[in-house]
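Appendix B. One record, verbatim.
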Amino acid sequence: MTKLKIFATAAIMSLATAVPAMAEKLSLNQISAYFNTLKTAKSDFMQISDDGSVQTGTLFIQRPGKMRFEYDPPQKALVLASNNAVAIFDNRAKGEPETYPLKRTPLSIILARKVNLQSANAVVGHTFDGKHTIVTAQDPQNPDIGRIQMKFSASPVTLDEWVIQDAHGGRTTIRLGDTETGMSYPRALFDIDTERSKRRR
């Protein structure tokens, strides 16, 4: 074998070993287990709305039932999920938030005390795009409230993005950055009444 052929063979072999293993579609049980072991999380996020506008901020999660979307300045908007409710504080310094029952939003699926995507016909889509496992879910008891589409990467299982489609067809995309887990949060971080009182001052 000539030196050129030896070099080419070595180069091909090195490339072959450098290519990561083919990603695989995650099962619904794997994704359910991911949520059920996730107690707290923090991540930067990018929100892309239907009109193309982009906002950034920090997301905090404390399962079950609690979530906080804290938008970067100059935004004063804040979204809190707590005590079975979702409160949306707009850019006004004062005023009452718009409040909805958590169970009437698709977020209830991932904030539930026990996530079991295999049960209750919650999943209406389970696909793989070669890189991400994509799961589309809705509350089978309340399909009219909209649905959530989630993208997961594997090794380790991580939620990278979700898209909320509301009852009117509007879509809001949340893309997550690196996620930290295992933190401890003060109770007030998710407390709707505490935030309401702060904004009245």
